[in-house]
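Next comes this protein:
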Amino acid sequence: MATIDEVDTMRDARDVGGLIQALQDPDEYVRAQAALSLGTIADPKAREPLDRMRREDPSASVREAAATAYRWVVGRLQEVEATRESRIPPTR
């Protein structure tokens, strides 16, 4: 069982694996904070766990946090892809 402080430490350390594990914590506040922390990091590994969580978590507030974090991750991934595409020179 993690604490909010531990989740904050994982976020600061960019410990995506630890935060993904914290999504399974029995404490809904820890799960919500872990989800939002993953959203701020926006690592592609968080996409699938957040997607599942936003649909399946028993807590409405956790589902909402996961949905918000999921949007952040997807948005960041789309930004990265758009940047990559704009750097590819046109073919002749």
